[in-house]
Every structure is written in structure tokens, then in C-alpha cells.
Amino acid sequence: MSQQSVKDMVGYTLVMACRAHSTRVRTLLNALGLHPGQEMFLLSVWEEEGLTQTELADRLQIQRATVTNSVNRLEKGGLLERRPDPDDGRIYRIYLTDKGRQIHNATRPVWDEMETAITTGLTPAEAATLHQLLAQVAHNLSHES
After folding, report:
1. In whole angstroms, what is the distance from residue 143 CA to residue 110 CA?
2. Confidence band of 145 (pLDDT split at 50, 70, 90)
3. Which residues of 59-97 are buried (b: 16+ CB within 10 A; e: fewer)?
4. What is the mean pLDDT of the chain?
5. Sign of CA dihedral 122, 138, 24, 115
6. SS3 14
7. What share of the chain is helix, strand, coil (3-state, %, to 5)?
8. 139 three-state secondary structure
9. CA angle at 53 for the pair 51 and 59, rounded to the nearest 5°
10. Is the pLDDT of residue 36 over 90?
């Protein structure tokens, strides 16, 4: 067993960074009437409207039940709507409402503010390296070895 302190491990630092990020994002999103995580659903639909709930689950790498609950909340909040697929009535596709489109412009400053907060004190090269390293960590954690 390693003698390294848990506080000196990458995993511990990652957890602390995720907590700090989550706390700050929660505050910024709450000011817009969003809950943390909802912006990720909206981001996917902003990028491509007409996705199915299964496609959203795959893109966000989350369970379909989680997508259903979140889409229900966002639909109830007037940000998204479900429409039947024109070719297959068993499938519903997700679209933005006008309110969902409007909130897109309000969330971009949140992303910009968080990017600035995260990369303050880093050179552009260090920020790029951090991005690559975090992408590798995400890959490592989402795929079994």
C-alpha cells in the first residue's frame, strides 16, 4: 500500500476542483433559473435540435431515465418541447422553445466566466495541456480498462 497522503493524489485534487467548479456554476446558473446539469442538456440541443432522448443519453453519457427526468423538467420550464418524429410516431424528438433559444445567449457568459476562472494564471499552452489532460482523464474514467 502506498504511503502517499490521499490529499497528494490526483484524484483528491480532481474532486476538490470539481466541487469548486460545481459550487460556482450552481450560483451562476441559479441566477438564470437553471439547475446544474440542465445547461448540458440545452447545450446538446443548441448544437443539434431534433435529437431523440436516446441520442441525448448517448451524447451526455448518462442513463435514459436521467434524460427523461431532465427533459420533463426542462419542458415544464418552457425551455424544450417534444414533438413526434414525422416518420416514426413512437419516437419523440427534442426541440428548443423560444425561451430555450433566448436562454442560450444568457448561458454563454457563464461558460466564458468559468473558462476565465479555470485558466487564470495559466498560459495558453498550459490551458491547452490542461484541456488535453482532462479529456484523457474523462476517457480513462468512462471506459473500463
Report:
1. 29
2. low
3. bbeeeeeebeebbeebeebebbeeeeeeeeeeeebbebe
4. 91
5. positive
6. helix
7. 65, 10, 25
8. helix
9. 70
10. no
CA gap 77, 33 in Å, rounded: 9
Please list the residues that pair with 81 across neighbouring strands: 95
The reply to whether the predicted model has a pTM over 0.85 is: no
Paired strand residues for 83: 93
pLDDT the model gives residue 1: 67
Q: Residue 13 is which amino acid?
A: T
Buried b / exposed e over 9-25, threshold 16 CB at 10 Å, is eeeeeeeeeeeeeeeeb
42, burial (CB in 10 Å: exposed 0-12, middle 13-18, buried 19+): buried
Question: Does an H or E element contain 93, and which?
Answer: strand 92-96
Report, as an integer, the average pLDDT of 98-117. 91
Residue with cell string 476517457:
139
Cell, residue 98: 423560444
User: Residue 35 corresponds to which cell in the numbers above?
Assistant: 439547475
Residue 42 has pLDDT above 60, yes or no: yes
